[in-house]
Design goal:
Blueprint (H helix, E strand, L loop, with lengths): L1 H21 L6 E5 L2 H11 L3 E5 L14 H7 L4 E4 L7 H9 L5 E4 L36 H15 L4 H25 L7 E4 L5 H7 L2 E5 L10 H14 L3 E4 L6 H10 L2 E4 L11 H14 L4
Parallel strand pairs: 1-2, 1-3, 3-4, 5-6, 5-7, 7-8
Helix pairs in contact: 2-5, 2-6, 3-4, 5-6, 6-10, 8-9
The structure holds zinc ion.
């Protein structure tokens, strides 16, 4: 009798252990993104079911990311890759190829976005070296956030159909919050409507269009081409003629040329990262919050 009871207890313990070992820890859908902005939106739409990370850092030049073997290893373990597209992250193709992940779902988040500065002809020098398909910095208009979220939802629902209703609900929540916050940023920046600005690279075409800023010049003569003395002279004259008060500079460019313009014309330099710093669900919004705060006191 005693033996039987011991045996039963042991058997029960063994089956409990087996059940514990068999039950997977909550397996999240792993998502890689080229940019923190896309990863942040994936974190929002994915909620507790998704783990998202970005290859590029928020303060890095998104056109040029070194393809490291460690990125390929990371991408070999994910279910979804979110690309920025429009030839911005061509480096992502090498990472994806090197990852040798046949089950990987690749989603290009630029699909359906109204593209600015689209080249009219095949070879258009005004697009420079790095914007051959038009301006790819579309995530910097908050009105494009919901379109990105729709791509994220589509990819997540394919990778994990069981949670498709959750992803759809979170996408809706994201789009509503994005629109509400966007209205607030527009109100805070309304004093800049029509203001003339200069930017270093043309990272801010969508941001400027969204908030009614007029870009009257670039420190780069063409996207991806460093300035010459002659170009800076012309830009100085344009800043003075247009009474531009704001120069937005990405942190990965040297600041000697912007400082030169500041000394010559009194234009004020604002260093803004082209992407959000983190990859948490609220970080896409926090980036616009900090830019709106930075420009709140800027002269229009
Ligand atoms: Zn660019």
């Amino acid at each position: 009798m005693e033996r039987t009871s011991h045996f039963r207890m042991a058997a029960r313990a063994a089956s409990l252990l087996a059940a514990l070992l068999a039950a997977p820890l909550h397996a999240k859908v792993k998502v890689a993104a080229s940019l923190p902005d896309l990863a942040s939106i994936a974190a929002y739409v994915g909620g507790n079911e998704v783990e998202a990370f970005s290859i590029a850092k928020g303060n890095a030049n998104p056109h040029f990311v070194e393809v490291l073997p460690s990125y390929m290893i990371k991408v070999s373990r994910v279910a979804v890759y979110l690309k920025a597209g429009l030839a911005l992250d061509q480096w992502a193709d090498a990472i994806i190829e090197g990852a040798r992940n046949p089950a990987l779902l690749v989603e290009d988040c630029s699909g359906g976005i109204p593209v600015l500065e689209k080249p009219a002809g095949k070879a258009d020098a005004s697009q420079g070296d790095v914007h051959p398909q038009g301006n790819p910095h579309y995530w910097l208009d908050p009105a494009n956030g919901p379109a990105i979220a729709a791509h994220v939802r589509a990819a997540l629902s394919k990778a994990d159909p069981a949670h498709a209703p959750l992803y759809a609900a979170n996408e809706k929540r994201f789009s509503e919050e994005c629109a509400k916050r966007n209205a607030g940023w527009h109100a805070r920046l309304s004093h800049l409507n029509g203001a003339a600005i200069v930017t270093y690279h043309s990272s801010w075409a969508y941001f400027a269009k969204a908030f009614g800023l007029r870009i009257v010049g670039y420190v780069e003569p063409f996207p991806g081409i460093p300035p010459t003395a002659r170009h800076l002279q012309g830009l100085t004259e344009r800043v003075q003629a247009e009474k531009a008060r704001i120069l937005i500079q990405e942190p990965y460019f040297g600041d000697s040329d912007p400082r030169f313009l500041e000394r010559r014309t009194g234009i004020k330099v604002f260093r803004f990262t082209p992407s959000c710093e983190g990859t948490g669900p609220g970080d896409y919004f926090a980036h616009f919050e900090s830019m709106a705060a930075g420009l709140a006191g800027a002269g229009g």
